[in-house]
Amino acid sequence: TAREYAKIYAAEAEPLEGFGEVPEIIPIFLVHRPANNIPYATVEEELVGEFVKYSVRDGKEVNFLRRDSEAGQKCCTFQHWVYEKTNGSLLVTDLQGVGMKLTDVGIATLAKGYKGFKGNCSISFIEQFRALHQCNKYCEMLGLKSLRTSHQKQRKATAMKSKTLPNSSSMKKTVPKKAREPRDFIASEH
After folding, report:
1. CB-based contacts of 145: which residues, under 8 Å, 6+ apart?
2. Distance between CA 100 and CA 21 in Å, rounded?
3. What percent of the chain has pLDDT over 70?
4. In-domain check, residue 174
5. Looking at the domain assignment, is residue 190 inside a domain?
6. What CATH number does residue 7 fall under?
7. Would you say 92 and 79 are in contact if contact means Cβ atoms under 8 Å apart?
8. Sign of the Cα pseudo-torsion (96, 97, 99, 101, in order)
9. Going by DSSP bridges, is the β-strand pair 28-32/106-109 parallel, antiparallel, or unpaired?
10. Can you tell me the distance from the alpha carbon of 145 to that of 139, in angstroms, rounded to the nearest whole number?
11. Using CB atoms within 10 A as the burial measure, which of 17, 30, 90, 178 is most buried?
12. Which portions of the sequence form the region Disordered (predicted)?
């Protein structure tokens, strides 16, 4: 799913003057080896160079290479683009790799999934992304809407509603359970 979104993103971004190269999610292949103790393995293209985590799964770590490098900025823009194209229902996360070649990405979806697909990362990543993302020149080149503005508007509307609510002591308070989707792993050899 992430690779397909990356291809569509590339088709939109590459023709733009000054955008340049776009991130590519390299394919991972499942290989069957019946004579081996571990009959299945995944293989992918060898990535040579400095391996960088451009985004993290929990959204809490700030990675300066992500913010300051061209690859990092374009990965953030890719996340923003997917978020906007799916109306905030899906987020490609855990972007990592060498230069513009990315591997082993994660996907977060809203609780019900997105078009039948359920992600392998917590739905809280979507909220964290919306709160922490800072648009860059590549977001502007693609005409993406600022997430700060929509997030700040929601916070103001919530603050105004709380002022007009009846006395909170007469209302029952509920706290939503934290949703956590376990990530499935396939045994692999590197």
Report:
1. 84
2. 8
3. 65
4. no
5. no
6. 3.20.200.10
7. yes
8. negative
9. unpaired
10. 8
11. 90
12. 152-190
Which of 23-27, 117-121, 132-136 is least confident?
A: 117-121
Q: What is the pLDDT of the chain when averaged over all its residues?
A: 76
Q: Residue 190: which residues within 8 A CB-CB, separation 6 or more? A: none
Residue 76, exposed/middle/buried by CB under 10 A (0-12, 13-18, 19+)? Answer: buried
* pLDDT tens by residue, 57-74: 555 544 555 567 899 999
Domain enclosing residue 18, as ranges:
1-142
Count of all residues that appear for the chain in the document: 190
The answer to whether 93 and 55 have CB atoms below 8 angstroms apart is: yes
The count of domains in the chain is 1
Active site residues: 94
Q: Does residue 107 form part of some domain? A: yes
Structural contact between residues 121 and 107, judged by C-beta atoms closer than 8 angstroms = yes
Q: Where does the chain have alpha helices with state H?
A: 2-13, 64-68, 70-85, 124-132, 137-141, 147-164
What pLDDT does residue 56 have?
A: 62
149 is a domain residue: no
